[in-house]
């Protein structure tokens, strides 16, 4: 009864749903116990160096969920969060169990293309130093290239949106060069630039520049003219009109351009690293594929998913903080 009131259930369902709700919040822990039993009791068919790491990870996650479960019985906010995430968490655990049964426990999916989660975790643990260096190299390349592309894209978009003559001269080149995928320039930039590092930065910056320019230009050109008239009557100069009126009003479209540029920069980063640079996640994937160590490829893909998702989340947090009146308008 008390738990039903905490999650806002209707009065006529209070007598039945608390048991269902309790079962629902216990599902992740039950699924983890099942996964742990299957992992330890069912014999392995595929060869692995050690299963100890996977056992420890499952045990730690089980302990965390048991703690979460106990805390949810006493705190309404914790109960709501566990109640909300229980189904999707249980589904993900079930997918991992099925994956392990099809690979490690039965070898239905063959090696080396379909490694078990145990083997991928081994790669994450044993290759952690090499992966950390690759992540740092990728981040360095991504940050430098993206910032250069974003700055030039913002400047070009503002100038095109504000000055008609600038738009007249730049627009044909934008239409001609912009649609070409940045990765298509690889054969050219490897000749022009002195190193693969600078060539990769140029490609990432080029891939970011185009969407940021187009969306910034559209944002500036679409600002309501009455904003400028009001500002002019108050004595605003051109610099003030651009930086304090036009750019803030264009922020919603600018952030869409930054988001699109970020997605393009991820693609360009990985392709550039696969072809030229000496370190990075793209380099690591190519290197692991060359040795047919696909479990390392999956480990790198897992890190990419976490890393790129975190970067996009940070960008959306910044957007929600700046455009607080549009918070939650674009879903992520």
Automatic annotation (TrEMBL):
The keyword Transport applies. The chain crosses the membrane at residues 21-42, 54-74, 81-102, 137-161, 173-193, 199-220, 241-260, 266-285, 297-316. It is a multi-pass membrane protein. It comes from the Bacteria. Its main location: membrane. Belongs to the binding-protein-dependent transport system permease family. This is ABC transporter permease.
């Amino acid at each position: 009864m008390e738990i039903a009131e905490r999650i806002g259930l209707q009065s006529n369902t209070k007598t039945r749903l608390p048991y269902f709700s309790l079962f629902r919040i216990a599902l992740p822990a039950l699924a983890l116990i099942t996964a742990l039993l299957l992992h330890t009791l069912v014999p392995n068919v595929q060869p692995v160096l050690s299963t100890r790491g996977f056992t420890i990870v499952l045990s730690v996650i089980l302990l965390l969920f048991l703690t979460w479960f106990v805390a949810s019985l006493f705190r309404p906010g914790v109960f709501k969060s566990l109640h909300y995430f229980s189904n999707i968490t249980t589904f993900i655990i079930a997918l991992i169990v099925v994956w392990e049964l099809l690979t490690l426990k039965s070898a239905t999916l063959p090696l080396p293309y379909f490694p078990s989660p145990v083997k991928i975790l081994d790669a994450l643990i044993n290759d952690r130093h090499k992966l950390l260096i690759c992540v740092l190299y990728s981040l360095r390349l991504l940050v430098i290239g993206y910032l250069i592309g974003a700055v030039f894209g913002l400047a070009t978009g503002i100038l095109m949106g504000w000055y008609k003559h600038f738009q007249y001269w730049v627009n044909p080149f934008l239409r001609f060069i912009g649609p070409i995928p940045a990765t298509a320039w690889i054969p050219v930039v490897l000749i022009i630039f002195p190193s693969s590092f600078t060539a990769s930065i140029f490609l990432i910056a080029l891939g970011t520049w185009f969407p940021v320019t187009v969306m910034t230009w559209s944002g500036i050109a679409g600002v309501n003219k009455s904003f400028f008239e009001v500002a002019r009557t108050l004595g605003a100069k051109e610099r003030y009109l651009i930086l304090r009126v036009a750019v803030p009003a264009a922020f919603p479209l600018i952030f869409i351009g930054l988001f699109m540029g970020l997605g393009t920069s991820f693609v360009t980063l990985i392709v550039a690293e696969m072809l030229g640079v000496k370190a990075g996640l793209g380099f690591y994937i190519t290197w692991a594929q060359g040795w047919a160590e696909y479990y390392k490829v999956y480990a790198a893909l897992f890190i990419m998913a976490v890393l790129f998702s975190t970067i996009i989340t940070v960008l959306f947090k910044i957007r929600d903080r700046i455009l607080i009146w549009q918070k939650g308008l674009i879903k992520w």
